[in-house]
Structure prediction request, 174 residues.
Amino acid sequence: MPRRTYLSYHHRLDVFRACQIRDSGVIEPNDLASEHVWAAITRAGDTAIRRWIDDQMNEAGCAIVLIGPITAGRKWVDYEIRKAWNDGLGLLGIHVHNLKNHYGSQTSKGGNPFAEVAIEGVPGALAAHVRCYDPPYLTSNEVYDYICAGLPLWIERAIASRQSAQRWPAIRSA
Prediction:
């Protein structure tokens, strides 16, 4: 049975890539907001965005950050990473730059969004403790197959790793 997960990604650039992973049947994802729904949520302000993210993340066991060209450093992706860590969720990243978007295009590889997130009292950035997977293929179909084949194991590893790290302090707000 697929694990309930939360997918974090840059909405405008990577929603199509997120839909591919959501629709794979390998995970039980959070709801992905349509363009119109996301626009309404963002128009309602930061409190509404936080509430929507918190509700979607509520029953997840793992948060998966889909890393596109400008995912790292995005305000809401950072919030989702911090919330997932502080809530004790498994946490992992997947580079999705070689999955095609709705135009049939690939993009450039983005930076690691965990690299600048420090854990209070633990040496190094969160990147030292959260695994990012970079599919070793260039064609979208091979990347998709690689992600689908690996994702169940990656999720279990992330959850087990996070459970062993429960003694680590929470991340301070940015």
